[in-house]
Design a protein that fits this description.
Blueprint: H1 7-27, H2 38-66, E1 70-80, E2 83-91, H3 93-116, H4 123-142, H5 146-164, H6 171-202, H7 207-212, H8 214-217, H9 229-244, H10 253-256, H11 262-271, H12 276-283, H13 285-288, H14 292-303
Helix pairs in contact: 1-2, 1-4, 2-3, 2-4, 3-4, 3-11, 4-5, 5-6, 6-9, 9-12, 9-14
């Protein structure tokens, strides 16, 4: 029998790493007067991510064993005409699995960082960044609407920029993080065009409402061309995934990004940020299924 998950429990998952990041980033750096030391900084951030991991594991168990689901709006930010801009969570099997992957990998990276960054002057700042990255990634995978997805998408890009250029006194690190930032903006331009087309033709940002109107989109043509509208939307969305997941030809930022400290290679390039593009395609599968051209485009890029 399907049960409903608790909104407060789900909210605690992204908020725990965010609180840890805020405390370490403000109180543990020169900005906040170095009120807390290294031990307190890594303890707070690790505790935040540990709480998120435990709650994520409990959520996955409820989803897998009990068929629990959650799809609600928690906060309405703005209403423009009939368009609602909201913050909410959609938790199903895909989301629950990604929550566990993100929090578990992040927890391991946090623990590894204690030893790896031991001699580094920016110790507290680094913990704040990786904890903030975890929050951004969780907001991305848990969102139930395209606005929140885009917020998480851009926040992940911003924090990856800060992490790749963490050693900002090295010219090569500055070059690498700028390159990553700019190449990702190319992909994000396609992504926001896809979101814009969805909003223009459906009048909503909510996943459930968009997917309900998807069959109608599949019958419309893109103005001025012979292309189907759904094909153009899906290709635009996939261009966003190409940038974030370092797919050809937007893969050029990935080798340079190794200029950052080693723990971020595990966090960003191996298990979490580059899987954001895969998550996007999986989440938008009700749209992609309506366009053979977009599926073939994805297949060719993936094969390359």
């Amino acid at each position: 029998m399907s049960t409903t998950l608790s909104a407060s429990t789900l909210l605690a998952v992204p908020m725990a790493p965010l609180i840890g990041a805020a405390l370490a980033g403000i109180l543990g750096t020169t900005f906040g007067g170095n009120v807390i030391g290294r031990r307190a900084s890594h303890t707070l951030t690790i505790l935040g991510v540990l709480v998120a991991f435990i709650l994520s594991a409990m959520t996955l168990k409820s989803v897998a064993m009990d068929g629990a689901r959650f799809n609600e709006t928690l906060y309405t930010w703005m209403v423009v005409g009939g368009l609602k801009m909201e913050i909410g969570f959609l938790v199903d099997g895909l989301t629950a699995m990604m929550m566990v992957v993100v929090t578990f990998v992040s927890l391991m990276v946090h623990l590894y960082t204690i030893g790896y960054m031991e001699e580094d002057a920016g110790y507290n700042r680094f913990f704040a960044y990786i904890s903030l990255f975890t929050f951004s990634m969780l907001m991305l995978v848990m969102s139930n609407n395209l606005l929140q997805l885009f917020f998480g998408w851009e926040a992940v890009g911003l924090v990856s920029y800060l992490l790749i250029g963490f050693w900002f006194n090295k010219p090569s690190a500055i070059f690498a993080n700028m390159k990553a930032f700019l190449v990702n903006r190319v992909g994000d331009f396609g992504f926001i065009l896809g979101i814009g087309l969805i909003v223009a033709y459906t009048g909503t940002l909510n996943y459930t409402e968009v997917f309900a109107k998807a069959p109608g989109l599949g019958t419309l043509g893109f103005p001025g061309t012979d292309w189907l509208l759904i094909t153009v939307i899906c290709i635009c969305l996939f261009i966003g995934a190409m940038g974030k997941s370092a797919q050809f030809p937007l893969h050029v930022w990935l080798p340079d990004s190794m200029e950052g400290p080693t723990p971020i290679s595990a966090l960003i390039h191996a298990a979490t940020m580059v899987t954001a593009g895969i998550f996007l395609v999986a989440r938008m599968s009700p749209l992609f299924e309506l366009s053979d051209t977009a599926l073939n485009f994805s297949m060719v890029i993936g094969a390359i």
